[in-house]
Amino acid sequence: MKTLTLIFAFILLPLTSMAQTGGDYLSQVTTAISNKNWDGAVELFSKAIKADAFKSEMYYLTQVDKSSAVCHRLAYQLASFYQKTRNYDKAFLFYKELTQLQPNNVKYLNGCAEMEVMRGKEENALRLYERALELDRDNLAANIFIGNYYYLEAEKQKQKIETDFRKITTPTRMQYARYRDAIDAVVSSNYAKAKEYLQNVLRTFPSAEVQKTLNKILAVEKTANR
Prior knowledge:
Elements: H1 2-18, H2 22-34, H3 38-51, H4 53-63, H5 71-84, H6 88-101, H7 106-118, H8 122-135, H9 140-166, H10 173-204, H11 208-224
Helix pairs in contact: 2-3, 3-4, 3-5, 4-5, 5-6, 6-7, 7-8, 8-9, 9-10, 10-11
């Protein structure tokens, strides 16, 4: 039994010693970049991140030439890793870096916007998704977010208008007219915007939930036009 234990220990020891650290992978990344082996550099960098995310992040920040052809691909590996591990603040920083490296890359704009949503910064996400739509009118993620954003804003405005009006025990004709004008204003602004973007969604992606929201907007429009 002791002999078998020694044999297994001898077999396993080289395998253990062969396990590469984050630093080992990063050294190979440097070599791959020097040889302009971009795909190899990205693959090795992905392994380095899994082995040691902090060291890989520092490597990117201090040793990667930001004008190099592979820079944005390495940054994307970090952004994706932090997104998957739910470190949304870190993920946002690298997606933001990506939007600076490639301002017209819709994928990076979407990623940055999504991280802003996860960080509770919806207005920042709105601006990013609007930029994405300037580049790609049919961008599904952008149309879904913006459509729902304006719909929820319209719902909040409508609810406040109705709540304030219900507080008036006996409204005058003037007060009622103002109430109707306020509802009409919401319908022609935020509800109309929501309708436009959600209709864009349905043109490329059939969705029962989106159709349900559009039906609610239609019901509000009919009530407002009475």
